[in-house]
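Journal club prep, notes for RB
We'll compare a predicted complex against what the paper describes. Inputs for the dihydroflavine-adenine dinucleotide case:
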Amino acid sequence: MPIKLIHRLLIAPLPYVPRSLIWQLSQRYIAGTDLEAAYGVVKQLNLEHCSATIDVLGEDCTSVEQTETARDLYLEALDGINSQSLNCNASVKLSEMGLRFDIDRCTEVMRTLLAKAREKSNFIRIDMEDSSVTTATLDIYRSLRKEFDNVGVVIQSTLRRSEQDIAELLDGGTTNIRLCKGIYVEPDDIAFTNPDEVRLSYCKLLEQLFVGGATRVGIATHDPKLVQFAEQLIERRKIDKERYEFQMLLGVARTMRTRLVDHGHPLRVYVPFGHRWYDYSMRRLRENPQIAAHLVRNLFSRG
Ligand code: FDA
């Protein structure tokens, strides 16, 4: 059966799944609805020798008020992280700060957040969203890194353009990049759709980043083959711990996470939280029904 049809069949019943079940399924991946819950999870991760990055759930804000609420929560979080001495930075989606309706305003909001982060000796990573905003996101990152050295961005190995994007970014100064596969379902002409191609692309891009002199690389994957490749690459090229960290999502691949930490690798866990957990979970499920399979499997195995 064609993959697109399978996707449609998996997505169709989603609106009829009770909210309580979606919450149950999502709980493992979401710290909670408020900042206190997120701090609690981060504290526990720090005790387990993992750093963290918090993400205020919410994307595609459609009004200035929504972006201001999200901005204020991030500002409060940066204060709280600092006052509690947590080992935690922040990840931000530009569409949550108004990218889709006012680019200038979005850039200004990011300046406010980065200034606060700098004041608190902290760092902000700009998450990467779907391919309709890749160019705008990278443009904003380029302009912000001229003013701030505490900002990073994300590159997706699924996109065919990524090799070129990395080459251009490495040419332009301090480069802090999280490399992930990419969660959005994209058309064949701009993205690799075969999993082996996505993996091969990931390996090439990771090497390109290290060899090309990226300041710091977040190796964001739970794919055992990619983690193994990265470990070998780090060993072979004698990459200093200052230049990389593994990154994983909350609630995913805990055994591998522990193994990497035990082997002395820096590891950061992505901690999403917030009231907009339902929209986030549904969107993730709709965009990539493979996650639905993960969710269902995790319901039956809590390892
Ligand atoms: P793959 O999907 O092959 O997963 C490998 C194994 O990990 C699976 O077999 C499964 O066991 C487990 N697994 C993976 N995801 C799981 C899940 N959600 N639930 C349960 N088990 C799961 N994407 C993006 O487009 N923009 C971004 O900014 C980010 N940011 C980001 C930050 C961090 C820290 C991580 C780890 C990931 C992202 N992503 C992202 C998501 C990323 O693009 C990708 O969709 C997921 O990491 C899944 O890809 P893997 O490389 O883990 O491989």
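Talking point for the session: The two ends are 32 Å apart (CA to CA).
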